[in-house]
């Protein structure tokens, strides 16, 4: 009888140990959403302070044809997807969440600009014959309202027509801004949409 | 950037954006917070 009790006690002890270690493993793999949420709000607060810095470059550029080009603000996207780091995307801030070996990546996904035609002629910016580059990428610009599959397609990339005195404020993205499963806003990607679906 | 005029003439322009980073205001605010924290610690 004593032997059975001892076996029962040992089995119960083992069960307790297994359940507690399983709980620990789960905790380390799946961060507490409230905890990560707190970090997200910290990163959101930081994002408000990420701006264009005027070190050597002008915020407003006057072209000799009378077109005024102003850089208003970078357009940022936050992600915890490690793929954005692996793919060497244009990351401007990496925010570590140390307790869970977890990172928030803040990327520049485009910029908000203002164009003004100060000349006496109508000016047309043909974006389909222009390019937008960063360290890792060069391609056609991508605009709000375009289909993702039209990114980097010249015939689908619209012009901007400015009559004399007209001012236009717009968002401009690089054409590798596409939608992924884990990130629902445009981000810098080297792959085409079809490649992403296949991989 | 390629810009056309009404007569079909065009010109290319190279435009470089300013660098992106944390604003000087943020550094000033962070510095002030640190100073206040140190001051309250001394008090």
Structure characterization notes:
The complex is a heterodimer of chains A (199) and B (43). Chain A is α+β, with helices and mostly antiparallel strands. Chain A has two domains: 1-30; 33-198, no CATH class. Chain A is built from four helices and 13 strands. Chain A has helices spanning 2-29, 33-47, 83-86, 193-198; strands spanning 50-53, 60-62, 67-79, 91-97, 102-117, 123-125, 132-133, 138-139, 141-143, 160-162, 167-174, 177-178, 187-188. In chain A, the strands form four sheets. In chain A, strands 2, 3, 4, 5, 9 and 11 form a six-stranded antiparallel beta sheet that branches. Chain A starts with a helix and ends with a helix. Chain B has 43 residues and is of the alpha+beta class. Chain B has one domain (2-42). Chain B contains one helix and three strands; from the N terminus they run βββα. In chain B, strands 1-2 form a two-stranded antiparallel sheet. In chain B, a hairpin with a 5-residue loop joins strand 1 and strand 2 (10-12). The longest helix of chain B is centred in the last third of the chain and has 19 residues, at 24-42. Chain B is rod-shaped and about 75 Å long. Chain B starts with a strand and ends with a helix. The mean pLDDT of chain B is 80. The chains are: A alpha+beta (199), B alpha+beta (43). Chains A and B meet through strand 1, strand 3 and strand 6 of A and strand 1 and strand 3 of B. Strand 6 of chain A pairs antiparallel with strand 1 of chain B, so a sheet runs across the interface.
- Content of β-strand of chain A: 25-35%
Summed up, the helix count of chain A is: 4
Task: List segments of chain A where confidence is low: pLDDT < 50 over at least 5 consecutive residues.
Answer: 18-29, 178-199
The two chains with the largest interface, and their residue counts, are: A-B, 32 and 20 residues
Class per helix and strand makeup of chain B: alpha+beta
Regarding quaternary structure, what we see is: heterodimer
Query: What is the number of strand segments of chain B?
Result: 3
What's the SSE pattern of chain A?
HHEEEHEEEEEEEEEEH
**Main pleated sheet of chain A:** 6 strands, antiparallel
Report the average pLDDT across residues of chain B: 80
Sheet with the most strands of chain B? Answer: 2 strands, antiparallel
- Order of helical and strand elements of chain B: EEEH
Helical fraction of chain A equals: 25-40%
| Count of separate structural domains of chain A | 2
Mean pLDDT of chain A: 71
How many structural domains can be distinguished in the coordinates of chain B? 1
- The termini of chain A sit apart by 61 Å
Q: What would you call the shape of chain A?
A: elongated
- The total of beta strands of chain A comes to 13
> Outline of chain B, from the CA principal axes?
rod-shaped
Count of alpha and pi helical runs of chain B: 1
């Amino acid at each position: 009888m004593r032997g059975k009790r001892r076996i029962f006690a040992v089995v119960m002890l083992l069960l307790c140990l297994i359940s507690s270690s399983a709980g620990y493993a789960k905790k380390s793999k799946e961060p507490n959403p409230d905890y990560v949420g707190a970090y997200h709000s910290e990163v959101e607060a930081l994002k408000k302070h990420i701006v264009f810095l005027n070190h050597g470059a002008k915020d407003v550029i006057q072209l000799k044809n009378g077109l005024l080009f102003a850089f208003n603000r970078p357009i940022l996207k936050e992600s915890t997807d490690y793929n954005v780091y692996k793919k060497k995307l244009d990351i401007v801030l990496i925010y570590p969440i140390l307790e869970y070996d977890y990172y928030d990546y803040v990327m520049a996904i485009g910029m908000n600009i203002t164009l003004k035609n100060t000349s006496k002629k109508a000016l047309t910016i043909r974006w389909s014959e222009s390019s937008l580059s960063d360290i890792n990428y060069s391609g056609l610009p991508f605009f709000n309202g375009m289909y993702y599959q039209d990114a980097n397609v010249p015939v689908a990339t619209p012009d901007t027509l400015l009559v004399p005195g007209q001012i236009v404020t717009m968002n401009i993205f690089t054409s590798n801004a596409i939608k992924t499963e884990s990130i629902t806003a445009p981000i810098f990607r080297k792959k085409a949409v079809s490649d992403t679906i296949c991989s | 950037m390629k810009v056309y005029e009404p007569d079909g003439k065009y010109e290319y322009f190279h435009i470089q954006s300013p660098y992106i980073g944390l604003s000087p205001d943020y550094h000033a605010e962070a510095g002030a917070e640190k100073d206040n924290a140190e001051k309250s610690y001394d008090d």
